[in-house]
Amino acid sequence: MKFDTPATVNPIDRLEVVGKATDRIDGPLKTTGTAPYAYERHDVAANQAYGYVVGAAIAKGRISSIDTSVALDSPGVLAVVTAKNAGTLTKGRFNTAHLLAGPRVEHYHQAVALVVAESFEQARAAAQRVRVEYARESGVHDLASAKASAVEPKDNPDVRVGDFESAFAAAPVQLDATYTTPDQSHAMMEPHASIAAWDGDALTLWTSNQMIAWGAGDVARTLGMPRDKVRLVSPYIGGGFGSKLFVRADAILAALGAKAAGRPVKVTLARPQIFNNTTHRPATLQRIRIGTDAEGSITAIGHESWSGDLPGGGPETATGQTELLYAGANRLTALRLAVLDLPEGNAMRAPGEAPGMMALEIAMDEMAGKLGLDPVEFRIRNDTQVDPANPDRPFSQRQLVKCLRDGADRFGWDKRTANPGTRRDGRWLVGMGVASAFRNNLLMKSAARVRLDAQGIVTVQTDMTDIGTGSYTVIAQTAAEMMGVPLGRVVVELGDSRFPVSAGSGGQWGANSSTAGVYAACMKLRADVADKLGLDPEKAEFVDGRVREGERSHALADAAADAELVAEEAMEYGDLDKKYQQSTFGAHFVEVGVDAATAEIRIRRMLAVCAAGRILNPKSARSQVIGAMTMGAGAALMEELAVDTRRGFFVNHDLAGYEVPVHADIPHQEVVFLEETDPISSPMKAKGVGELGICGVGAAVANAIHNATGIRVRDYPITLDKLLDKMPPLA
Ligand code: MOS
Question: Which domains are delineated in the chain?
Answer without folding.
Answer: 2-35+443-576 (3.30.365.10), 393-441+582-726 (3.30.365.10)
